[in-house]
Amino acid sequence: MTADRQGGAARTRASSRLFVGALLAIACAQHAACGRKAAPRAPEDVLPKTITSLRAVNTAEGILLSWNRPRVYADGKRMPDLGGFEIQRASGTDPAAAFGRIAVIEVTDRDRFRPVTRLRHLDPATSAGVAYRYQVVSFTVDRYVSAPSNVVTIERQVPNEDQHAPLPTPQR
């Protein structure tokens, strides 16, 4: 092969590589332009908004917790990807007592037209006369976790029939 032919073949290979590289660049640019057009968001902005509505009541079966579903992220934007809740409990009234996880509730109604707005959890593993502190943490499907909710403290009391108004006595 002569030097002219070798030079021409090398130029052809270089041109082909350049052409393929340009096609890949165009394809990547088009692919990158597809999908979401929103600007990236800081991780602290996609945390679920902190729950502030936690309540606790005694029932015959245990302590019933209830709270409102968070609907927005910490930055106030709508949150379509709520993943669930972690229920945490501490025994006693000491504010320094550590909380431990007692349950995880997965959210399964994200795609429903009307998702549940008020959630509940029954803690049956309680003892009468003992005070408990509860808090709830929410998380997204990507496991971004909110700050803990408001803390509620309740002493376990077992409701009984004596606490109700007496029934009328039949007259003879």
Give a structural overview.
The chain is α+β, with helices and mostly antiparallel strands and 172 residues long. It has 2 domains: 1-34; 43-158, Immunoglobulin-like. Helix content is 18%, strand content 27%. The strands form 2 sheets. Strands 4-3-6-7 form a 4-stranded antiparallel beta sheet, with no helix packed on it. A 3-stranded antiparallel beta sheet has the order 1-2-5, with no helix packed on it. The mean pLDDT is 83.
Mean pLDDT: 83
- Order of strands, main sheet, comes to 4-3-6-7
Number of strands: 7
Going by CATH, the homologous superfamily of the largest domain would be: Immunoglobulins
Major β-sheet profile: 4 strands, antiparallel
- Portion in strands: 25-35%
Q: How do the helices and strands follow one another from N- to C-terminus? A: HEEEEEEE
- CATH fold descriptor of the largest domain: Immunoglobulin-like
Spatial extent as radius of gyration: 30 Å
Number of H- or I-type helical stretches = 1
Reported CATH architecture of the largest domain:
Sandwich
The top-level CATH class of the largest domain is Mainly Beta
The poorly predicted ranges are none
Helix/strand layout:
Blueprint: H1 3-33, E1 55-58, E2 63-68, E3 82-91, E4 100-106, E5 118-123, E6 131-140, E7 152-155
Question: Summed up, what is this model?
Answer:
The chain has one helix at 3-33; strands at 55-58, 63-68, 82-91, 100-106, 118-123, 131-140, 152-155.
